[in-house]
Structures are given as structure tokens and as C-alpha cells.
Backbone:
């Protein structure tokens, strides 16, 4: 049965984030209320830093971090395709979560405000580590970026230990059309053809809109996409289908998936994007629970 | 709405005492609301931490309680399971299973209410962690003592017809006094629950490989037999040679999923089968043979594993007796 391995120290998994850092990412995420605007690049950096913290939190084993997951973050803009690790991790490409967590770029002070359980609000400060900073620059060399992602996956697959691992997961976030659409499609197809013994690599695409658009999550066919939406169509071509073995796990995580749907969101809002990135990265992918009671009761 | 992250729960719990979005209509939860909690200190449960995060809460009267928050939706019949477990264990108490309560609307995160458990807090460390310390220190007596307590616990569970369902060194705590305690009862079997589906397929390296490639697991008192025997073998072997720890696997005690998936090409199984202590070699042989079979036959019962060590011949049905001869014919 495919897609059944757990990410563990004996056979770690791989997550590759591919981030659009083109100029338009400096613009605000459309659809927000006045006074709650935030730049796409900032929101993305926040979401990814949160995902990294969560993977670290779930990799705790006793007093250590178990090296259950490797990670790479590739950013692209203009003519630059670059690994985004910085500070103590600068110059590195594929890192184990065990190396990542103790070496953040820095620590921010954040204020959290929540309901106090009695109808009021209460706030407190907390320190949050971060590894990635928001960036927005030139054009959109998506094909080159996907080529880099493919090379990273190929390099990782050369380690025989990884042949028994859960397949690599590539999470790509973009807000627009690339300069090199065909190359993007071709490279994505090549990545989807790479595999471990447990199945083919999964390419998940997330589109953040330039202007307000109706969000489409996990489309099953092209007819589910808005007409004339070229970015959505492109990402549809690039995305993997949800493997049948992972349907239950996705449903257990409350994602609105259908059998055989594509792993993508078009015109995503920040909440949906966060949910998909958390699900795709924090290891829930390989946790397939048995059928709920009443279904498949043992004979 | 998808389930919260550990960070989300940590944020709620880092709010001042009495000011957390925890359901204070329920006394046990109100107690959590008024407890001191360290959001950064927690246990993770099941499947390498994908299911629940457990916080240590110090109550206003000084006592401790565990607050177990879920990272994904529980079985749809969780309330039924918890009720039947509680009733059965009240009539048949076992020191290894502590009191736990399930509450459907326990903690509010980002506008939505999520369920949670409260449990007696168990002071101690995971079996994995304790074995790690003992093997690092070369403490054979300490390891032997754990092996003995392990046997005692499993025999008691079998006698009560109770099975944990996800027996794993991260689901067993070792108290400072050496006593063992089980945690994470979502897959706990008690006889009144017979007929329900198995909530979890089990963890790689602790169940027969067939369950990780599609075979459905029977929900009954025999669920732990394979894992219990495997852990017993690991503890005995490590007590004899503590330096084996970490050599064959970084995730498990001694044997890895690879050893179970491909037993014929497992150097560790080779080594264990050649051991001079029949309590180790016999058990290794029986486990290895079970792994070769396409499905778990259930003939590897813990009873026979214990019997190998103590030279007791249990009263077995004819087909099982034949297999039993295989163990003693060394």
C-alpha cells in the first residue's frame, strides 16, 4: 500500500517549499478588510515560519528533536533562484528539522489576543522564532524554480535510506503567471515522476490572487476552475492528484477534498492557505486512521 | 475548520490563569483554566505526535493533572469508547490505566470549540527515554528490572482481557519508582467494546507488517500480543547488551520496521536468534517466523513468550501446540 510510511528518524521525509518572490508579492493579499491588510510576501513568510515551528513541535522526542523530516526552501524572482535559509544556516540547501529548529534567523516578540472565556479579550506577549523573511523583487521565473526543486528532490533520492521514506512533498506558492509557463509544467511533471518505494512525489500548488477572486480548493476537473483563469489552469496541470490512500487522512484534517481531486488551491485566502500548508507539512499526510466506527466493523 | 496546531493550543494556555478560553462550566476543565501551565512543555501522542499534545497542569491545590488536546478529529464513537472503558475499569481496576475524562467542548481556539481529555498526571518519562538513559549508563540491572515489570504488566492486561491497541515505547511511561503506566487510550480495548472497528492500524515497528499494507486489524484483547513480545525481546536483549541501543534503529528500541518487513535479511534477527539465552533466541525465532507470514496468525501469544523463559508449557489448542513445539525445538 503506497503513501503509508511514517516520517521517522530511520526514514525521514522531505518537504520542499518553492516561493514566488516576484514584485507583485509586495502587494496586499486581496479580499482583506480595511485595517487588516497585509502584504502577500509577509503573510507567506509568517505562514511558513509557523509551519516550520509546528513541524519542530511535532518532532519532539524526549528532550531532543528527532530528525524525522528534511526541508528545503527555494525562493524565486527576477533571475534569482535561491535557497532561503539564512543566518547560521546560510548557504545550505537541504536541512534536517533537527538542524533547523535550534538555528533561527531571529526571534520576534508577538502579541496574542484571545477571548478570555468570559466574553472579554485578554492579551499576552510571546517570543516566536523565525527562519524566513518576506521578499519581493522582479519577474516570475517559475520554470527555473521548479527545475531547482526537481534537482533538490533528485539529490535527496540518491541517499538509499530515503528509498523507503514517505515520498517528497513539494509545496509551491505563487501569485501569478510565470515568464516560462511551459517549463513550469514540464518540470512539475518531471518532479511528479520521481518516487520512493512508497509512492510518487507530491506537488501541491497554492495560488494567491493578484486581485480578489473566488477561491477554488481541490478542484476535480478543469470545469471546476473559473473560465479564462490562466494561473489556475497552469497550477491544475502542475498539481498532483490526491492519492486514494490519503483521502481519509485529508478528511480527518477537515480539508474539503474529494476522491481524485487535485492538490491545489486557486485564489486562496490566508486561512485556506495556512490550513493546506499545515496539513501538507506537519506530517498529517501519512497518518491514515482506520475507518470510523459503523463502517468496516470487523466480521 | 481544521484542527488547531500545538502552537494554537500553546497560545490559549499561555493566557493568564482563569482567563483562558476553556469551558469553565465543567469542573475538571475549570480546574485546568485555573492551573499553571508551561505551554512549551508537553508530550506528543501517537504516530510520531500527529494526534494529541499533552500539557502538564499544576492545580491551584498543588496537584498535577494532564490536559490532552487533539490535533485531529477523534473517532466518531469516542464518547461510547470512553464510557465503556471507564465502566469496565471501575469493575476491573488495573494500575496501568489511569483515570481519563473526555469533554467534547473543552477548549476554544480561533472561534471554534474543540474536544480534549483530562487525565491523572503521571510523573516519569517514556519507556523509550528510560531505556535510552539506562543503556547509555550500561545499567543492565535496571533494564532487567524493566523487562520483568513489562512481563508483569502484559500478563495482567491479558488476564483482564484489556489491550492498549497502540503499544509503543512512547505510550508507556516509567515512574521514578520503576512502575509502568500506559497513556493514550483512544484504541484501548475492553470486552464491552467487542465488535467495533480498530481506531488505529498501529505503529511501524510494533505491529505485524501486514497491518501497514492494508490488512484490517481485529479489535480485541490480542492486539498487543505482537508488540508486547517484540518489546520484551528488545528489553531482554538490551539488558544483556546495552550497547546495542541505537545501533540498528534510531526510532525504535532494537528492531526497525525494515527488520520486520524483511526478516530474512535482518542482521539483528540473525544476531538475536544466535543468542545463548533461550529467553532471547526462542522469542526472536518466534517473532521472526511470524513476520515471514503474510498475515498475523495470532499464534505468537505473549503467554508462549513468557513460557519460553520460564519453561512452562501452557495448555494450547492442537494447531497452536504444533507451533509451540517450534519454539522449544531449538
Residues:
Amino acid at each position: 500500500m503506497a503513501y503509508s510510511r511514517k516520517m521517522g528518524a530511520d526514514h525521514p521525509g522531505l518537504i520542499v517549499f518553492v516561493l514566488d518572490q516576484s514584485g507583485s508579492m509586495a502587494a496586499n493579499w486581496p479580499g482583506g478588510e480595511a485595517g487588516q491588510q497585509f502584504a502577500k510576501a509577509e503573510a507567506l513568510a509568517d505562514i511558513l515560519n509557523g509551519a516550520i515551528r509546528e513541524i519542530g513541535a511535532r518532532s519532539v522526542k524526549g528532550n531532543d528533536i528527532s530528525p524525522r523530516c528534511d526541508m528545503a526552501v527555494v525562493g524565486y524572482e527576477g533571475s534569482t533562484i535561491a535557497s532561503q535559509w539564512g543566518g547560521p544556516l546560510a548557504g545550505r540547501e537541504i536541512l534536517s528539522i533537527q538542524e533547523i529548529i535550534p538555528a533561527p534567523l531571529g526571534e520576534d516578540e508577538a502579541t496574542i489576543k484571545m477571548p478570555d472565556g468570559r466574553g472579554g479579550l485578554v492579551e499576552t506577549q510571546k517570543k516566536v522564532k523565525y527562519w524566513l523573511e518576506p521578499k519581493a523583487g522582479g519577474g516570475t521565473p517559475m520554470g527555473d524554480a521548479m527545475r531547482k526543486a526537481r534537482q533538490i528532490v533528485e539529490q535527496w533520492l540518491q541517499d538509499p535510506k530515503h528509498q523507503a521514506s514517505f515520498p517528497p512533498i513539494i509545496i509551491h506558492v505563487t501569485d501569478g503567471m510565470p515568464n516560462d509557463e511551459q517549463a513550469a509544467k514540464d518540470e512539475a511533471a518531471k518532479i511528479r515522476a520521481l518516487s520512493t518505494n512508497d509512492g510518487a512525489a507530491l506537488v501541491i500548488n497554492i495560488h494567491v490572487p493578484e486581485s480578489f477572486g473566488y477561491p477554488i480548493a481541490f478542484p476535480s476537473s478543469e470545469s471546476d476552475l473559473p473560465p479564462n483563469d490562466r494561473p489556475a489552469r497552469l497550477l491544475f496541470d502542475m498539481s498532483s492528484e490526491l492519492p486514494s490512500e490519503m483521502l481519509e487522512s485529508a478528511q480527518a484534517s477537515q480539508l474539503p477534498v474529494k476522491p481524485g481531486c487535485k492538490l491545489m488551491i486557486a485564489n486562496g485566502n490566508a486561512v485556506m492557505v495556512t490550513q493546506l500548508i499545515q496539513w501538507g507539512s506537519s506530517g498529517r499526510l501519512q497518518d491514515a486512521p482506520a475507518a470510523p466506527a459503523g463502517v468496516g466493523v470487523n466480521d | 475548520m481544521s484542527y488547531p496546531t500545538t502552537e494554537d493550543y500553546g497560545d490559549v494556555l499561555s493566557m493568564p490563569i482563569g482567563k483562558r478560553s476553556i469551558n469553565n462550566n465543567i469542573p475538571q476543565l475549570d480546574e485546568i483554566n485555573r492551573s499553571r501551565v508551561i505551554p512549551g512543555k508537553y508530550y506528543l501522542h501517537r504516530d510520531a505526535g500527529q494526534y494529541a499534545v499533552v500539557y502538564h497542569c499544576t492545580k491551584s491545590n498543588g496537584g498535577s493533572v494532564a490536559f490532552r488536546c487533539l490535533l485531529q478529529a477523534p473517532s466518531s464513537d469516542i464518547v461510547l469508547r470512553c464510557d465503556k472503558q471507564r465502566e469496565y475499569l471501575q469493575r476491573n481496576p488495573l494500575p496501568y490505566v489511569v483515570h481519563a475524562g473526555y469533554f467534547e467542548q473543552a477548549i476554544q481556539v480561533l472561534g471554534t470549540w474543540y474536544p480534549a481529555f483530562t487525565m491523572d498526571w503521571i510523573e516519569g518519562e517514556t519507556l523509550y527515554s528510560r531505556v535510552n538513559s539506562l543503556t547509555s549508563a550500561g545499567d543492565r540491572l535496571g533494564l532487567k528490572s524493566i523487562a520483568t515489570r513489562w512481563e508483569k504488566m502484559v500478563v495482567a492486561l491479558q488476564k483482564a482481557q484489556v489491550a492498549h491497541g497502540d503499544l509503543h515505547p512512547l505510550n508507556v511511561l516509567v515512574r521514578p519508582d520503576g512502575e509502568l503506566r500506559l497513556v493514550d487510550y483512544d484504541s484501548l480495548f475492553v470486552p464491552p467494546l467487542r465488535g467495533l472497528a480498530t481506531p488505529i492500524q498501529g505503529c511501524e515497528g510494533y505491529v505485524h507488517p501486514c497491518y501497514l499494507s492494508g490488512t484490517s486489524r481485529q479489535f480485541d484483547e490480542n492486539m498487543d500480543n505482537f508488540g508486547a513480545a517484540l518489546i520484551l525481546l528488545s528489553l531482554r536483549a538490551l539488558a544483556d547488551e546495552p550497547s546495542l541501543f541505537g545501533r540498528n534503529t534510531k526510532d525504535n528500541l532494537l528492531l526497525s520496521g525494515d527488520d520486520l518487513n524483511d526478516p530474512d535479511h535482518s542482521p539483528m534477527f540473525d544476531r538475536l536468534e544466535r543468542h545463548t539465552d533461550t529467553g532471547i533466541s526462542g522469542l526472536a525465532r518466534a517473532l521472526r517466523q511470524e513476520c515471514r507470514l503474510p498475515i498475523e496468525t495470532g499464534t505468537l501469544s505473549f503467554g508462549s513468550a513468557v513460557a519460553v523463559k520460564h519453561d512452562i508449557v501452557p495448555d494450547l489448542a492442537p494447531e497452536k501446540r504444533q507451533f509451540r513445539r517450534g519454539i522449544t525445538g531449538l
Summary: Chain A touches chain B through 54 residues (CB under 8 Å). Residues 284-299 of chain A have pLDDT under 50 and may be disordered.
